Amino acid sequence: EIVLTQSPGTLSMSPGERATLSCRASQTIRSSYLAWYQQKPGQAPRLLIYGASSKATGIPDRFSGSGSGTDFTLSISRLEPEDFAVYYCQQYGVSPRTFGQGTKVEIK
Amino acid sequence: QPRLQESGPRLVRPSETLSLICTVSGGSISSKTQYWGWIRQSPGKGLEWIGSVFYTGMDYYNPSFNSRVSMAVDTSRSQFSLKVKSVTAADTAIYYCVRQGLYDSDGYVSVWGQGTLVIVSP
Questions:
Q1: Which residues of A touch B40 (CB under 8 A)?
Q2: Which of A30, B35, B38, B79 could hold B52 in an S-S bridge, CB 3.0 to 4.6 Å?
Q3: What is residue A82's predicted lDDT score, i.e. its pLDDT?
Q4: Cβ separation of A98 and B115 shorter than 8 Å?
């Protein structure tokens, strides 16, 4: 199965700063079938990005995804208070679908 | 977007079978372009995809569950189900029912249920 490694484990940031989250795959993810999800405490994850760079419906422009092959990035251009959460990447090109272990974006 | 709601026992004894149901509202469970699935989340293993089922009953599962898992769809009730046999404490987790696309190109999870915590304990 494809192992996804997210870094860093925790990102301490201030509102208004730019956040960059990394997701590295153990093998090439075909056709960039990679998604990003946001999870807040006590809630289910929410889809942010699919196809490595396409935004889901209703996702603000400050979120963007990039990458291909084995290296992918989620960027948040200017952190808003509601963006402090845990972010997960997932590959859906190969079964079993797998998730990264998550990056927590916390307030500095 | 449809709404998904999990239901079932919150406590399961070791070696018994965990059974959950997901009720779909605001959308058709008989969609020809969607799979219905289950994902669980535990502190030890993070998010783990369990498997998915089509409205016809066609299914596929994560091999790591070693054939302990089965899923089914009841279109008359707009529900789909999960069974995990021979549970241990390692099966304690929040279980989410989800919707994902039929094809690899849209195989991401677009809709999540709120999740239900299942504890395996004597």
A1: none
A2: B35
A3: 97
A4: no
| Type of residue at B16 | E
Residue B28, pLDDT above cutoff 90: yes
Q: Which of A31, A47, A51 sits opposite B109 (nearest CB)?
A: A47
A13: contact with B, CB 8 A cutoff: no
Q: Which residues contact B10 (CB under 8 A, 6 or more apart)?
A: B116, B117, B118, B119
Residue among B46, B49, B60 minimizing CB distance to A102: B46
